[in-house]
Amino acid sequence: MNINLVSCAAMAGAILVLSAISGCSNGERGYAEPQASAGAPLSENPTTVPSPGGSVSTSIDPCELISTADLADVGEFDSEYKEGGGARACFWQADFDSGAGGFTFTVGVRDSQGIDTVNDIGDGVKQEEVNQRAAVSTHDPASGDCMMALELDAFSRVDVTVLGGREVSDSCEIAEIISGILEPRLPEVA
């Protein structure tokens, strides 16, 4: 689906969805991190491909791809930068005090993994497009987690991961909306 064609009503609906999913929480603070899918051991390291001459991704700060202003209509979010598992990532979590219930998503930059290396987390890997940029998505029907990977070049990508669960029934739709917000901030595909 082309994000440019999403109407204002659809965006408003998405904001309502994000607001609705944020209603349940136990009040604990923290950052949820995506876990390995049931079929993959936690110790499994992703396959990396060295990028010849350096990747366009190395100058990208994942925490600058989304801003608190982008999320203001949904709630107040805190972000935290972490590195690991072959990615530089920014974990975004809605502040419990703002009524957003701890909704969590991650934006990760993979400097040496292209979209062709995305692993199926349960429901297949689907070819997608975000604002005419090649992307793929995969969904775990057991957990409800969804990951959308946007191409930077043949050797690097940006991942948007939305954690599912009982509060989030449409994590792939939310991942697509977040991807549409950040895609114009990415360098052109090399």
Describe, in plain words, how this protein is organized in 3D.
- This protein is α+β, with helices and mostly antiparallel strands and 190 residues long.
- The protein is built from 2 helices and 7 strands; from the N terminus they run αβββββββα.
- The chain has a 7-stranded antiparallel beta sheet.
- Mean pLDDT is 75; it is low at 1-53.
Which descriptors apply to this entry?
disordered N terminus; seven-stranded antiparallel beta sheet; 7 strands; 190 residues; alpha+beta
In short:
This protein is of the alpha+beta class and 190 residues long. It has helices spanning 8-21, 171-182, and strands at residues 77-84, 87-94, 104-110, 125-130, 133-139, 146-153, 156-162. A 7-stranded antiparallel β-sheet has the order 1-2-3-7-6-5-4.
Largest β-sheet summary: 7 strands, antiparallel
User: What is the residue-mean pLDDT, rounded to a whole number?
Assistant: 75
SS-based class: alpha+beta
**Poorly predicted sequence stretches spanning 5 or more consecutive residues:** 1-53
Order of helices and strands, N to C?
HEEEEEEEH
Binned, the helix content reads 10-25%
Strand order of the largest sheet: 1-2-3-7-6-5-4
Structure summary, number of beta strands: 7
Oligomer: single chain
Q: How big is the Rg? A: 16 Å
First-residue to last-residue Cα separation? 22 Å
* Overall shape: globular
In percent, how much strand structure appears in the residues? 25-35%
Topology summary:
Layout: H1 8-21, E1 77-84, E2 87-94, E3 104-110, E4 125-130, E5 133-139, E6 146-153, E7 156-162, H2 171-182
Antiparallel strand pairs: 1-2, 2-3, 3-7, 4-5, 5-6, 6-7
